[in-house]
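Bench notes, afternoon.
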Amino acid sequence: MSKAKIFIDGAAGTTGLEIRERLSARPELELLTLSETQRKDAAARKAMLNAADLVILCLPDEAAKEAVALIDNPAVKVVDASTAHRIAPGWTYGFAELEADGATKIAAAKRVSNPGCWATGFLAIARPLVRAAILPPDYPLTVHGVSGYSGGGKSMIEEFQKTDAPHYVETVQRAYALGLAHKHIPEMTQHAGLTRAPLFSPNVARFYRGMLVEVPLQLWSLPGAPRITDLHAALTDAYAGKALVSVAGLAEAAEMKVLDAELLSGTNLMKLFVFGNEKAGQARVVAAFDNLGKGAGGAAVQNMNLMLGLPETSGLLD
């Protein structure tokens, strides 16, 4: 059996390096590479894009669009890790667990858009609750959380790590996207099945990788005043049998005093927690995962596996 040829365009970036690390030890794959000089040669890059069985784009949005335009070989499959195609017609959204037929659609697709890390956490929570009619599509949702600084790419990593860098910061945590127009909001809204955008309040803190994404809910304000057990049942049903996404039991969640943003750092897993106060009619639904794992590189590898007809979790659970 011949090896599947994989080309990572943008392999020198944070996400590209993460993906390369996950793929480098897999004998069923052949990683195609360009030298530093060839990367600057448009003809050489185009040839490589068209020689691969599957291309993973780890590029800024405009560069990703340009790369797709260079592919004229109809057999080449693409996973795009940028924001460029997450709500674009003709592209399949690459969150395999989000819908019952998600993995099947990804497996049949030629063009798959990798979700954003924040969107991954929000959608994992919101989509099953909307689908179960617990959350109305026009409900005024709020989502907030904290991510490791690796999610900001090379520039933010430099800000937090290099003490001699011009923009080095000593802060422990900071809020951003204060203009309420973060690039993940369109995919959050569309793929959750919402008619109104959620109010999104992201934060970044002084740890490298890992994240928590939280959707707080006033249960008394929802139609039928659902209980904490209703939220948990909807999420448990949505992810039953999924290898990479799980839901903590209510007893486990009730015993917890804290939830560490680095809980699943270094893995490709996601775990959902439902915390609540029945008397107050309030709940906090939280997704814990690695922003570079299930939030980026791990998701890209999962999508690649599906598109190539390989076991979905190959290279992701060891």
